[in-house]
Write a structure and sequence with these properties.
Layout: H1 2-31, E1 37-44, E2 48-49, E3 54-63, E4 68-77, E5 82-90, E6 98-107, E7 115-126, H2 129-133, E8 137-138, E9 142-148
Parallel strand pairs: 2-9
Antiparallel strand pairs: 1-3, 3-6, 4-5, 4-7, 7-8, 7-9
Length: 152
């Protein structure tokens, strides 16, 4: 009878340890909300663009952690036109951790009218399985303003 009781206590100990370990890992994942990328500066290298022209943007970033990212991007003009750009995805920072300067080019669509234009980027970061499947790290959209000239 004593052996059966000891076996029961051993089983309860293993089950309790498993529950506490799972809860601890889940609590660690929930508390892990620090931004893995810091955007130091965003500059428009072509502040005035014509429809069909190239918008050139330079960003200075500091990659702080090895996390995957998904960035939704879009262009808007003052006349309610919107173009969804291809999303940016990566599993690890493209050039490793540390400060980086990224320059990218976007073609402004021909249907955009003259006036103000905006580039929006909305990032999501995933540093653990909970963030990848349920609750990603997000922060405010990067909004870059530029001017669209009249077509010649």
């Amino acid at each position: 009878m004593t052996g059966l009781r000891l076996f029961g206590y051993a089983c309860l100990t293993i089950i309790t340890a498993a529950i506490l370990a799972t809860a601890g890992v889940l609590a660690w994942f929930i508390a892990d909300r620090g931004l893995p990328v810091e955007v130091r500066d965003t500059t428009v290298l072509t502040p005035v663009v014509r429809p069909g022209g190239k918008l050139v943007i330079r960003q200075r970033l500091d990659y702080l952690r090895n996390c995957s990212a998904y960035v939704d991007r879009a262009l808007f003009d003052a006349h309610t036109h919107r173009v969804i750009l291809p999303a940016v995805r990566y599993e690890r920072p493209p050039q490793g951790l540390g400060p980086r300067t990224i320059t990218f080019t976007i073609t402004v669509p021909d249907e955009f009218g003259p006036g103000a234009g905006e580039y929006h980027a909305a990032p999501e970061y995933h540093c653990n399985p909970l963030q990848r499947h349920y609750w990603p790290i997000t922060w405010a959209q990067t909004v870059v303003r530029f001017k669209i000239e009249q077509k010649p």
